[in-house]
Amino acid sequence: QVQLQQWGAGLVKPSETLSLTCAVYGGSFSGYYWSWIRQPPGKGLEWIGEINQSGSTNYNPSLKSPVTISVDTSNNQFSLRLSSVTAADTAVYYCAREGGYGGDSYAFDYWGQGSLVIVSS
Amino acid sequence: DIQMTQSPSSLSASVGDRVTITCRASQSINTYLNWYQQKPGKAPKLLISAASSLQSGDPLRFSGSGSGTDFTLTISSLQPEDFATYYCQQSYRSPRAFGQGTKVEIK
């Protein structure tokens, strides 16, 4: 049974850096892309970006704050850093696995529990 | 980037009703379309992948259809546990994109 457990600071000051880490337990870490997705309070889901075990990344160009996703394969973990945050970055942040579902179809099939990050001074 | 548009944004329905939610992509995405169910305070849960493949263990009253740009999620007979927000998501290319969500409420 695959489980994703995430953690990080819940309160970040404006202009500082948001940092979250997600650990993967059970299943294989390699062979998948691992994503960060966020959800502002009362709003919809926004994909932030993804990484695989080789460190290959893809990011959503619509994000205003600079994003870095990194991987630690020795511990089956991946991390999110969002720099120069503003109040607009206040959201529940989720980590998720993108699994394969027949042919080259993919979907987010395992999710972390979510972390509420508030950007406020 | 591919934009996903769901309709309606919300709906009120009664237990036993047939419910249909529509998702439209801004360009053709073949059948690279997923549906998620989200309940308050919880992470989204994958419900349907590749437009029409229901996840193992999920009730058969849920079904998905469509290809190209137009997709549908149908709940054949709404049950109390189905009241939630539903999101479509394209996996055709990056950046991945979600629809804005459809909240299904009790009438």
What attributes does this structure have?
heterodimer; A: 121 residues; mainly beta; seven-stranded mixed sheet; four-stranded antiparallel sheet; 0% helix; B: 107 residues; globular
In short:
Chain A has 121 residues and is mostly beta strands. Chain A contains no helices and eleven strands. The model of chain A has no long low-confidence stretch (mean pLDDT 95).
- Look at the helices and sheets of chain B and give the structural class: mainly beta
Summed up, the helix count of chain B is: 0
The total of beta strands of chain A comes to 11
Backbone structural class of chain A: mainly beta
What is the H-and-E element order of chain A? EEEEEEEEEEE
Outline the low-pLDDT stretches of chain A. none
- Average pLDDT reading of chain A: 95
Biggest sheet layout of chain A:
7 strands, mixed
Q: Terminal Cα separation of chain B, in Å?
A: 36 Å
Integer-rounded radius of gyration of chain B: 13 Å
Tell me what the structure shows.
The complex is a heterodimer of chains A (121) and B (107). With 121 residues, chain A is mainly β. Chain A has strands at residues 3-8, 11-12, 18-25, 33-39, 46-51, 57-59, 67-72, 77-82, 91-100, 106-111, 115-119. In chain A, strands 2, 4, 5, 6, 9, 10 and 11 form a seven-stranded mixed sheet that branches. The model of chain A has no long low-confidence stretch (mean pLDDT 95). By secondary structure, chain B is mainly β. In chain B, strands 2, 4, 5, 6, 9, 10 and 11 form a seven-stranded mixed sheet that branches. Chain B has a four-stranded antiparallel sheet with strand order 1-3-8-7, with no helix packed on it. In chain B, a hairpin with a 3-residue loop joins strand 5 (45-49) and strand 6 (53-54). The radius of gyration of chain B is 13 Å and the shape is globular. The relative contact order of chain B is 0.35. Classes of the chains: A mainly beta (121), B mainly beta (107). Chains A and B meet through strand 5, strand 9 and strand 10 of A and strand 5 and strand 10 of B.
